[in-house]
């Protein structure tokens, strides 16, 4: 039998939902959406995605990935 702590361990670090809600895109100052599958914070307005590494958002434009059109 697997307990909840063991199943969460496989998912990696948890991202704090309140922190994500407080963050805005450093380029456009608009809200971000979280893509849990890709571990990214997405700015639809700027068409870029910021990586989340170890549960920590990397909000540097140089680290962001450009989204495909």
Description:
There is one protein chain. The chain has helices at 4-9, 17-22, and strands at residues 33-35, 40-43, 48-53, 56-57, 65-66. It has 69 residues and is an alpha+beta fold. It has one domain (4-66): N-terminal domain of TfIIb (Single Sheet), CATH 2.20.25. Strands 1, 2, 3, 4 and 5 form a five-stranded antiparallel sheet that branches. The protein is globular. The N and C termini lie far apart (45 Å).
Strand content: 15-25%
Q: What do we call the CATH topology?
A: N-terminal domain of TfIIb
**How many beta strands in the DSSP annotation?**
5
Topology pattern, helix = H, strand = E: HHEEEEE
Query: Which second-level CATH architecture applies?
Result: Single Sheet
Rg from alpha-carbon coordinates: 14 Å
pLDDT averaged residue by residue: 85
How far is the first residue's CA from the last residue's CA?
A: 45 Å
- Helical content stands at 10-25%
Helical run tally:
2
* Biggest sheet architecture: 5 strands, antiparallel
What is the CATH class designation?
Mainly Beta
Class per helix and strand makeup: alpha+beta
Poorly predicted ranges:
1-10
Domain count: the total is: 1
In one word, what is the shape? Answer: globular
Pfam family, one: Trm112p
Protein name: UPF0434 protein O2N63_02200
InterPro entries: Trm112-like
Family: Belongs to the UPF0434 family.
């Amino acid at each position: 039998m697997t307990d909840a702590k063991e199943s969460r361990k496989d998912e990696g670090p948890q991202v704090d939902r309140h922190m994500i809600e407080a963050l805005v895109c450093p380029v456009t100052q608009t809200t971000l959406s979280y893509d849990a599958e890709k571990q990214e914070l997405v700015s639809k307005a700027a068409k870029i995605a910021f990586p989340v590494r170890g549960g920590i958002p990397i909000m540097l434009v140089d680290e962001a990935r450009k989204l495909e059109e």
